[in-house]
Fold this protein.
Amino acid sequence: MQFSPILSNYFAKYFITYVMAIFLAIIAVIFLLDSVELLRRGVNKEGISLGLIFEMAMLKAPNIGYKTLPFAVLFGSMMVFSKIVKNKELVAVQSAGVTMWQVLVPAISVVLLLGLFWIMVINPISSALTAKFEMLENRVLRHQNNALTVSSEGLWIREKHAEGYSVLHARGISNDGETLSNVTIFLFNKQNMFSSRIDSSQVKLKPGYWNLIDAVEMSKNGVPSHNDEFKLPTQLTVGNIQDSFASPSSMSFWELPDFINILEEAGFTAVRHRLHWHSLMASPVLLCAMVLIAAAFALRSSARIGTIPRLIAALFFGFFLYFMTDLVFALGLSSRIPEILAAWTPAIVTILIGITSLLHLEDS
């Protein structure tokens, strides 16, 4: 029997209503918790108002929404399928010749479209809001004054010092930023007045200072002086240079490939950004896997186990999946396993578990 479009639309509307209701409820709770946490962090900071706290929490909410969407799909699907079983709707459609897999088609179609819409449309908006949140967080909560930009022209670093600030431009980078070549450094005083310029063929980052080799310093009066070695104090390390790059979540799905190429051409590792991009690609598949897992827990009309224990079991599975995903991502970030494998393994393994459970359920 061919599946009726009317029945398909009925189940699709049923499904999207429950999923979105749970998603909005989770976002509301997380928004309140984030607001409390930001308020705690900013209670002793000057110039932070309650309005700014709520603004930062709202800017952060879409990024949190992306992380909680699989849980919303899992629990929303559980509630829909449990209600279908409780109301005998599953028995009714099966008696009309509709298989269990045909019942799942509307739900899978909805989450697949939802996942694609999120990464293609919502993600660019979310990344822009996340970038603004990180800028506010660095400025008002962390009081970080360093700025770093990497482009096809090289690396730019602005760093504050006791005497003023410096602007470093390196045209060549190696060893993940530990060694720079063809470097120009501009020094400014606290009144933003130019102090001097330093040119060096090679600069190495040492603990607490930049070691400039074959450096030529040009004062503001135009008088040059040559130094075989010149030490410029810095608080930067290789680790926080890489951390200063735009975080993957602050860049849209469409921007990440070009930025990854720029990072790699500049001499930096792009594992973190590449892993995030592949995880975005895998997210629609993961949402479909959540539907299959929910169906495996809920579509048991003859089971003696009640709805609450099934929800608890689904909750346990969700947290277990979250833990395993973090573990696999950590292996990917440390380059123990390829980024593609780390990003796609949770989605592929979960969807295989869901299909196997449903096949077993159908046979029994």
